[in-house]
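User: Need the bound-state model for zinc ion:
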Amino acid sequence: MRPPLSDEQLARTRAAELLSTLSPDRLPVHLGSLARSRGITRVVAIQLDSDGLLVEQDGNLVIYVNSRLPIARRRFTIAHEIGHTYFTKKRPDSVGLAETRFGCQTEFAQNSSSIEALCDIFGVELLMPLPAATKIIRTGFPSIRCIRELCSTFNVSIAAAAWRLAEIAPVDVTIIWCREMAKPTDAKDIKLRLDWGVSPRQDRLYLPRFDAVPHESLISSCYYSRLPAEGFEKLDFGSLRGSRYLVCERFGNRVLCLVLLDASPANPRGQRPGTLFV
Ligand SMILES: [Zn+2]
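Assistant: Bound-state model below.
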C-alpha cells in the first residue's frame, strides 16, 4: 500500500537529515553510525522467519536481521528498521522476536502496510542518497547497466536499485519481475508468469500476479536464452497495456524488465520529459 504523499515526503526528508551527519563522499553509506545516532545500540544477525525487526530490550533499541539474507538485503533491512525509529512508536520486546507477525518483510513486499512501504522508501533514500544516485542515473538511458552500477556503488540489491532508478530516472519506468511458477490454484500449471511489479511514480497500477507471459514475448526470450533482450512490444498485463519499450535481463530464476512508457534508445528523453530535472 502506497503511503500518503506527505508521509512519503516526510520519510525522504528524515532520511536526508540523517544522512547530512555523514560525509556525502563516504559510500556505501555507513549504516552503523546512522543507527547509533537513532539510539540503536546493536544490530544482531540471527535466523528469523521475517527479514528483520526493531525491538526494545532493557531500554535499548536493537535491530534483529535475518542472517539468511545476502549482505545487500541485510543492509536494506537495517535501513528499513532505522526508518521505524521515526514512524513506529510501539515496538515489540524480545518475546515476539521469532513471531513473523512482529517482523518486517522489506524491499517492497506485496501487500505491505503503508508504514512498511514508508520505511522501504526511507531505506531507499538512506542507502542511495539522491545526489549520488542522480549522478549515476542521469548518465543515460535507463538500463540494467545503470542498475548494476547502483548495486556496486551503494551495496544494495538489484530490486532496491531498480526501484531507485524508476523513482528518479528522467523518464517514466515501470519495473516488473517474472519467473517460472505455478498458479496457486493449479500446482501443475507451471509457466513464466508475472511475479511482481512497481511503478514508483504511479499510484494506480494494477498488475495481476500470475498472469502468464506470452511465449513470443521478449521476456520469455530473455528467460529461456539467458541473454539480455530489449525492444518494443505490445503488453497486456492488467493496467500495463499497449506498446512499450522493454529492457530485460535474467537474474537467477527471475527476469527483471524495465518497461518504458514513452522513451526508447531513439528517443531517450521520451515525449513527456520527467519533471524531476526541470
Ligand atoms: Zn518494517
